[in-house]
Amino acid sequence: MYIDDSLALYTQLNALGLLKESPPFWWPNYGSFEVVLGVILTQNSNWTRVEASLKNLRLRHLCDLEPVALSKGEWIRECIQPSGMYTHKTTYIQALSRNIIGEFGSFESFCDHVDRNWLLQQRGIGPESADSILCYACGRAVMVVDRYTQRLLSALGYVFEDYDELQAWCSNLHVNFDEAALPKIYAEFHGMIVEYMKRYSSSKGVNIVF
Predict the structure, then answer these.
(1) For residues 171 and 6, is the Cβ–Cβ distance under 8 A?
(2) By CB count within 10 A, which of 3, 96, 129, 158 is most buried?
(3) pTM for this entry
């Protein structure tokens, strides 16, 4: 099947019911500081390992901004070992937490006022991580794209020069939906792509089922 734009892809994925077993907005604990932690922890890791790290952080009450910023680094390192690269990730997590407090004062203010450029200036935060934080932690109408997105679109015959070009192709839904609905639409669109690729792709390629 030829997919001529992002609305067609969104519609086909949505028809498959890929998010039936997922939390609202796909990412667990959407709209919380825990999402910021998860974004950093998932770098070069998988979600099963991230969940183990987040469980450890919850047990130590280290899933909110202020406790993380004030905690001892060794406590965080111990909790997040399952995710790998725990020394670097501890540095990123604590630096970002302290900078959020220094710049915005609270997580709520951060969500309201942070922009992508500020996030990209933080250690350990690249375009995908910045957009994930804006989308899933801050509730912004931002489309996250990743290697799953690139592989799916490649299987559909599309070639993109870089992250920004891929994101722009996927972000045209703003002309099809009410502005107030876009944060949920983009959150679910990315989630559907991830879930589709987990089910229908392998090292041999991507199986197109629509």
Answers:
(1) yes
(2) 96
(3) 0.97
